[in-house]
Specification:
It is found in: Cell outer membrane. The chain is built from 5 helices and 2 strands, in the order αααββαα. With about 220 residues, the protein is mainly alpha-helical. It has one domain: Outer membrane efflux proteins (OEP) (Up-down Bundle). It is rod-shaped, with a radius of gyration of 42 Å.
């Protein structure tokens, strides 16, 4: 049975609103992504400025080591020369110009090899190599410290969130108990002191929740 135009339009409007709401909820859920411990460690290793500076320092030391090693290899130099002269250029003495050359090309390769430098090159190479190894160890030590700090903070946050959950559950229980005690007091089954004690427990539970929330923020 077809729907009347008015009802059909209302149905389409409701369906459209529901469709948009579902898309918005799906997009929000897609944007939110809880990070695992491994994700946190990966981000910390990538974004930590100390580690980035240490890696750049390693590259500099490796370049110094390569430069020190290059002193052991021969140095080659290539020289070339090319010139052009006009064929009818003036010749001293006033004689008719003979068949003169018009192009001149020359080249030379020279080599230089250091045979002995008083162990200077060897010592420079060893110093550069040891400096590179020491910097690599420093990077590893820093990476271990970053991993330890991130892991400790990760589990501290999990613990703080769990404590907050427990505190909120305890607060809900204290509030329900306070309502029940107040009802009993109104019915004359308990004393005013019992009702006051139940309200005091609610206040203590609220304070515990506030402290737990602060712990989550500080974690």
């Amino acid at each position: 049975m077809p729907l009347p135009p008015k009802n059909c339009g209302l149905t389409c409007l409701i369906a459209g609103v529901i469709f948009l709401w579902l898309n918005h909820a799906a997009a929000a859920e897609k944007e939110y992504q809880a990070l695992s411990l491994e994700d946190c460690l990966t981000i910390a290793r990538k974004e930590n400025p100390v580690l980035s500076a240490s890696r750049e320092k390693i590259q500099e030391l490796v370049a110094d080591y390569q430069a020190a090693r290059s002193q052991f290899f021969p140095r080659l130099s290539l020289l070339s020369y090319y010139t052009r002269q006009p064929a009818d250029r003036f010749v001293s003495g006033g004689l008719p110009p003979p068949n003169l050359f018009t192009k001149e090309l020359s080249g030379a390769i020279t080599g230089k090899q250091v045979l002995f430098s008083g162990l200077k090159n060897y010592q420079n190479t060893q110093a550069a190599r040891k400096g590179t190894e020491a910097q690599k160890q420093e990077v590893q030590r820093t990476a271990d410290e970053v991993a330890y700090t991130v892991t400790e903070a990760f589990y501290r946050l999990l613990e703080a969130k769990e404590n907050l959950k427990v505190a909120e559950e305890a607060l809900n229980q204290r509030r329900e108990f306070a309502k029940l005690t107040e009802a009993f007091f109104q019915a004359g089954k308990v004393t005013h002191l019992d009702s006051f004690r139940a309200q005091s427990q609610v206040s203590e539970a609220e304070q515990a929740v506030a402290e737990a929330r602060n712990a989550v923020i500080l974690a």
